[in-house]
Inverse folding.
């Protein structure tokens, strides 16, 4: 089976020069891939026009969805999935952050993992023996580990990384997920999606990835987001465990 891949990039105020670099690096890994950028920055329309000029020299398929307001990473990725599903050729969907925390070099590992027949959802994990974390402040690592322990306690999916948005899904998994209409908007949507898919007997598999702190720009994560994430985990339990 020919692998036809859509890569969804949620974007909020990331520098356009870096986005261009990211697109070129993805293009060198998966030249036939379809890239979908979902930009929620306040001036997304102007950014779209500028970025289109910047990448006019590449042959890569890049579709930019310029949205009118910030709706959260999770919502942006779902919008990207819905758009990518329209292309019937696409049989694998990858979501990754657009701030170089997720390296295009790791894309080949995801594609290799799809060679195994039972592969449906592949989660890039920061917490497997062969995973690497570069430049993330100790405080962030500890906080992330605590959140993951808490999510495992509550959701019991037996994965090591509930909150990393570097993932690959098969078409069946994405069609099912989009139909189920996950409700969470922010980062916790990653846990909700995994929960929905596991409940429907899709297999979740993890591979080690290299996670790097954002190259530049400001983090849009606040302590309020983290609190909302924890409350969201309780909501997921209540919503689907009846
Ligand atoms: N479209 C869209 N993208 C978003 C939104 N919030 C965050 N993102 C993107 O989602 C990805 C993850 O967000 P980050 O702000 O990097 O969150 P993080 O990785 O947990 O934290 P830092 O890297 O420390 O900022 C990045 O590519 C952001 O540009 C949003 O509301 N809408
Ligand atoms: Mg980031």
């Amino acid at each position: 089976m020919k692998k036809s891949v859509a890569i969804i990039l949620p974007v909020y105020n990331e520098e356009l020069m870096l986005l261009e670099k990211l697109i070129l690096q993805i293009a060198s890994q998966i030249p036939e891939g379809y890239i979908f950028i979902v930009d929620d920055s306040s001036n997304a329309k102007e950014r779209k026009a500028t970025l289109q000029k910047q990448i006019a020299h590449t042959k890569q398929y890049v579709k930019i969805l310029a949205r009118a307001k910030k709706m959260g990473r999770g919502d942006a990725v779902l919008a990207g999935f819905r758009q990518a599903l329209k292309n019937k050729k696409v049989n694998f969907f990858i979501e990754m952050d657009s701030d170089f925390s997720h390296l295009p070099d790791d894309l080949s590992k995801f594609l290799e993992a799809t060679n195994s027949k039972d592969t449906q959802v592949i989660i890039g994990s920061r917490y497997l023996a062969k995973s690497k974390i570069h430049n993330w402040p100790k405080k962030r690592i500890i906080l992330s580990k605590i959140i993951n322990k808490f999510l495992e306690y509550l959701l019991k999916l037996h994965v090591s990384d509930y909150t990393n948005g570097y993932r690959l899904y098969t078409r069946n998994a994405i069609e099912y997920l989009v139909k189920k209409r996950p409700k969470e908007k922010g980062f916790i949507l990653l846990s909700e999606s995994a929960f929905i898919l596991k409940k429907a007997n899709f297999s979740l598999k993890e591979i080690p990835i290299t996670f790097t702190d954002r190259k530049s720009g400001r983090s849009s994560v606040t302590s309020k987001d983290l609190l909302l994430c924890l409350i969201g985990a309780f909501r997921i339990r209540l919503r689907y465990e009846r």
Observations:
- The CA atoms of residues 25 and 237 lie 38 Å apart.
- The beta strands are 5-11, 34-39, 61-66, 92-95, 121-125, 132-134, 167-170, 204-208, 210-212.
- DSSP finds eight helices and nine strands in the chain.
